Amino acid sequence: MTARLDLPQVTLISATSINIEATLKAIEECQRHVRLAACKLLTHEQPARTVAGIEVVTTPRLGSAENYSRLLLTELARHVDTSHCLVVQWDGYVVNPERWNPAFLDYDYIGASWPQFTDGHDVGNGGFSLRSRRLLEACRSDQFRPSHPEDVAIGRHNRGWLEAQGLRFAPRALADDFAAERRGSPEETFGFHGVWHMPALVGGDRFWELYCGLEDRSSVHQDRKAIMRDLAAQPHGLRRCMKMGWDGLWQPSRRRKR
Which of 111, 146, 168, 241 could be joined to 228 by an S-S link, Cβ 3.0–4.6 Å? Predict the structure, then answer.
C-alpha cells in the first residue's frame, strides 16, 4: 500500500445537506490516502455517526444548489486557516496519492478541466478542487460577481478579474493531472469527480451499496445511462440496471417535493 501523503498546508472541506453518509465515506477515503491539516464537514445537522478526524460545522440547511454556491463563495474563508483547501463532494475524492504534484500548490485554483470550453478559460470543476485561501478571500470581495454554479463563477465569469488581482489558475495540462471529470481517467489522476466513474473505480457491489444509501439520487440519474453500461457488465447488472431505470422515472417528481 502506498504511504499516506502529508499535506499539512491543506484543509479538506465539504458542504452538504444531502447524502451526508456518502459524503462522510468520501472524506474517509481522502483520509485513508492523505494526512491533512483538518477535515471539516459543513452541514445542517449532526451525522448519524461520528468519524474520527472530521469536524462537523453546523450551518443553515443548504436547500438548493444555489445555496451551496453561495456558501462556497462567501463562507469558506471563515473555515480555512491553511494556505489551501481541498473541496470534495460525495462523488469525488482522492484515489492516487502518489500522483500528487507539489506544483499544485503553486496555484490559487485547480480542478478538472472542462472539455466543452475552448477559449482557455477551462479550469475547472469545483466538485474536487484545490483552492488557496487568497482565492477564498477574493471571492468575498465586493468586486467579485457571484453566480451559480460557483465553479463557473470562479473559473469563467470572474477569472479575468481574479487574474488581474494576481491569482493564478493552473494550466489545463496540470489540471488534468490533478483530477478527472469529463476528460481523462481516475486511474491516472490524483483525484476525480463524477459518479459515472464510480462503478468501474470501486466495483459494482460497493457502488450499489452506496447508491442504495443515497437519499437524493438526482446527480446519479443525470448520467445513469453511462453508469448502467458499466453496471450491466458486472454481477447482478441486469437487475440493478432495471432498478436504476425505474428509480429514474420517479426521481424528478421526488426532487420537486424537496
Answer: 241
User: What is the C-alpha separation between 44 and 26, in angstroms, rounded?
Assistant: 18
Report d(CA 48, CA 19) in Å as an integer.
Answer: 12
Q: Residue ranges per domain, the chain?
A: 5-193, 198-257
Strand, coil or helix: what is 72? helix
Is 39 within 8 Å of 31 (Cβ atoms)?
yes
Looking at the domain that runs over 5-193, which CATH code has it been given?
3.90.550.10
* Residues 93/186, Cβ–Cβ less than 8 Å: no
**How far is it, in rounded angstroms, from Cα 157 to Cα 86?**
21
Specify the DSSP element, H or E, that contains 21. Answer: helix 20-33
- pLDDT computed for residue 246 by the predictor: 85
Tell me what the mean pLDDT of segment 235-247 comes to: 89
The predicted-structure confidence for 116-137, as pLDDT tens digits, reads as follows 999 999 999 999 999 999 999 9
253: pLDDT confidence band, cut at 50, 70 and 90? very low
CB atoms within 10 A of CB 106: 12
The identity of residue 169, as a single letter, is: F
